[in-house]
## 1
Amino acid sequence: MNRRILLGPATLLALAACQDTGHPTAALPPERASASMSEGDRGAEPLVLVAGAPIAFTSTRDGNHEIYVMNASGSRVTRLTDHPAIDLLPSWSPDGRRIAFTTVRDGNWEIYVMNVDGTGLTNLTNSSAADEAPAWSPDGTQIAFWSDRDGYRQIHVMNADGTNRRRLTTSDDEDGSPAWSPDGTQIIFDRFEDDDSDLHVVNVDGSGEFNLSNSPDDESEPAWSPDGTRIAFLRGTNGDSRIWVMNVDGTQQTPVTAISDYATLPAWAANGRKIVFTSTRDGNYEIYLMRADGSGQINLTNDAAYDAFPTWRP
């Protein structure tokens, strides 16, 4: 069976605990070699709350898994949460004023929302089930997520205040990693069935579901480009994982990271020209930035801590 990445409770805990993965580092062509920002470069730049910046992410740099933000250059790292429980998977609201995230602070995986300064923490799901991976609708009125409250991991949608939850997918398989189309009419997600993971697309009313990738490899962690024309995703083949980009109709599939880089969790910049992602190529989980074609890769975090789950401010 190919390597499967499903962001469930066990996987999140395993990822969060990993600091030295032991995965080999693949050589990149010179034009795609990674670079890192020096601390001097990081220190002089103010935190910029404008379109495309900053980046929200999870880090253990202060000893616990917390939500942080930083500029797109890796500068001005700012901690937003401060709790002994694990906080993961931040997701910006379209207006950039709030961040939804996954946390286990109430004893099980729940979805919380907070203001961009870390205030106003609110539990949106408040159930005994696992509720994870929030994704805001483009108009900011709804949040998609996955939950196992009905016995299987399925995609659900709720209002941004946690009301009017409804189940969107109805299979007996495992669904995760929801992402909205920029026009708000569809949601793409990964589904694990029959020892294979594929990317599926469904209308927001639950109709018209279809398998977009439909390949023998494992595809997961989809991210829709802001202009709606491309999808970045993770593909695993025989133990290797790479980030790929394809057209929204599934054509012109192109790898943009090297084999064995263990690159995961792609997220588009607001202008659609760059992608931020997580990689262990330097021996631990770090956050990287690259152009959408895979060139110009830069290590943004470059520290000994666990840094992962990056997401751009719209």
## 2
Amino acid sequence: MKPDVTGLKTFKRYQVAVSELAKAFNTTTAGEGLEWIPTEWSSDLMQRVEVERRIASFFPRFTMPSKTYEWPIRGTKPTVYIKNEVQSTSPTSYRAGILATGKSTFTAKGVAGLIGFSDESDEDSIIPVLPTAKSELVSAFVDAEESALINGDDSGSHRDADVTDSDDIKNLFDGLRFIANAKSGEHDMNGAVTMAGLIAMLKLADQYAADPTKGFFTTSTKNWYTMMTMTEVKTIDLWGPQAAYMKGALTGVLGRPLFPTAFIANNLNASGVYDGITTDNTGLLYVYPDGFKIGERRAITLEVDKDIRSGLMYVVATQRYDFQSMVPSADINVVFMYDITA
């Protein structure tokens, strides 16, 4: 018969030690470990997100104090008139100008990413599964954010015919392509990007393109390579040390940054949308980022859980945010160039 170990002095010391260890740190009690688990992950996640963000890094962000938040915006400036000299004790009042005002309404919308895997895979895999899941969620959230910022359309019937799922990230809010179309901020390039066409884009944006330090261009990777072959930018004699043929990249044009994105498609039609019929065109955006804001009700938050009944582990990332234009509706703070052969 095996001895009863519970009666041993060493077992009692073991019980005390385990009990004290449990009290010292756990993930369910506030002040005793609860705050450390999601916070540590989310902090590290946010650092990675900030590094990987591309287009989103240009836009101002703020923390929304409530689910719905109205941000006042300035409308047209009041008109100033000539005043007459006072010539009586009952002078005519000055002519009044109108101070036009407006607002942008932010409504936080939630997004989530989930990865599930078995505890055995985490133990047996050559590549650690948990850190890999975390890294993949970082990339997925960055990609989703950029896709929504460029291609978003929450009108209920997306302009691109390939967006059919109601929970597609492209339905989250109105993105840059949609806003450019709504503001009549589109320009037909008739097949190819030219320097004259780029200047026409800036002209369409008017005062929102006057300062070259406050705007950027972005286009599909395929068109980015094509733009390197434009006569004006490819050689040193015309473009200096930044010439595309010297650097192997075109990092800017007309004094503004230019960078590629995977989220301007190469299968658009000649009008700049996807219809599934004509699929050999792409596009290019000019954006004045200070004319927009991203409102966050919840920054990206990462949580880890395990279902001990099944041995499944879950990594979940969530975020609540919105994106809005911050200029009068008639002003063009984004321009989309379409009809560019991919």
## 3
Amino acid sequence: MSQLGQVGRDPEVITEARRRVDLYLAAQPGAAHDATIPPERVGILLMLGALAGDEALHQRYVQQLQTPSTGSNTAAYMTALAWFEAPALAERTRELATDGRGGIPSRWRLLVALLDNPRTRLDTWAWMQSHWPQIEAQTPPAGRIELLEGTAGLCDPMRRWEVSSFFSPSIRPLEGGLKAYSWALSEIDACIDRQSHLRTAGDWLRAHYSDKALKKRSKRNRPARGAS
């Protein structure tokens, strides 16, 4: 179900997830609330519900994060907020990461989740760079290292250079910072290398198995007229 919704964007799966999320959020706190969706499915359904989510649902997720009784589902709501992909809602999620109001714990993890979503990754990275003084002032060293590690999905040489130069002065001196810095850059390098191999393979397949290439090969192998 997760793959059909998150990757395949199956409309029926997303619509059903939204219906079940609405039921879950409408239930009373306590046993009835938890019984609506099995605990192990809450995170997946909240995320899929966000794909069809609007401003009202985004606000309801935020309210759940601000509620102490949310407890073990805090991480699930944080991850799900990153899957509201409408530009205005993604921007609102980013702003929550530096908004000191509302009692949201470990709010930098909203940015980590946005970096994990390919559709919000680049905008979030650009936003982080322009808001870093504010982020750095509000985020403990361990959180800043998590943000660095979150950039591992930035998969092109220009972003690799940005990550390297941006984090080198402030993160490397932290305990565990150099290790995280080296790991993130190695992950970016590996991703760039994979993409390069995929492009090479794609070029080869197009050269040998495109309609044009197959027609050319068929014509070349066709016996000449009059040949016995």
## 4
Amino acid sequence: MAEEKQDHGPRIGADPELFVAIRDASTVSEDADKPVKKTKSGNVISKTKKTLDVLEKEFLDSLTTKAEKEKKAEIVAACGRIGGSKGNPRRITAGEMAQSIWGSRLQIDGRSVGDFAVQEDNVMFEFNIPASSRPEYFANNIHYFVEWLDAVFLAPLGLKFAWMNRYSFPEKALTHPLSKEAGCSPDYCAYNPESSLARSAIQIGQLGNQRFCGGHIHVQYNYNNVPRHVMARFMDVAVTLATLHRDKQGDRRKFYGKAGLYRPTNYGIEYRTLSNFWLTPNARGDNIPKRIGDAVISLAQTANTNPDALSAFYNKVPWPDVEKCINEEDQTLKKELLLYVAGKCPFYIGEAV
């Protein structure tokens, strides 16, 4: 019997994390059943042109106003409110979503792998989408699933998304056992020596009361052609450098946002450096998920079909500078690096927007 050929995609998936906050009644009525505005080309129109830092500041400022205090608006722990876990996520079927304007616009095809699902991860709300071979499906599913979750799933629970990647919780919010867990398995750093790529596990005590949200990307590709730690470095170039000016992580950077962070999987890697900045309404309005999808699929396709080109490119990149640039969020160095790799890179690099 002929040996079954292994599927190497390429595909891109995601399991991002978000904070949730108390939603007041007026917010529920304003958001429900409101159609998404789009351009003629089909891109979602952003309602605002604000960075994640600005959105975060506005949200925090709103919590201090008298009106918000009266509404008791606050960021709350998702644990015990959402359902689902790492080992047993709460799957959301197409039938559950089909009757809404958002659910009817989700896109899967015969090459999509996995489910839509939600789960509790420490105090964060985490969701999954099917992995897709098409960047436009990836971006579309991110956008409409987030919209569906906010308007249909969270609203009846009296919750909404809080667009920020870090938050210091009051002690009273960290009593649930899940809030004491820090990571389900160790991650790896592509810049460590090859003999010791795995990082020491972060202990919950190191975080204090701070918690952080990631925007992890799953990449399916032929890891026999390109080692996983090398692929993580390429992801630094493909998606992180171009978006570094938008992904301001604060303390998350030193714990979970360092360059080249990944976990090996049986299909490729889970790339962990990005925060959840690319899920905000502003980022989705600027088509950042689609640009990330284009870059990742281009990179994974090159790994599958032309690994020699990647090998040649790898030897031209000043990797210590890439690591320093990301870890220090050095915008000047970022511009120099993007100029340097332009024309040398055999895969698409997400535009700096």
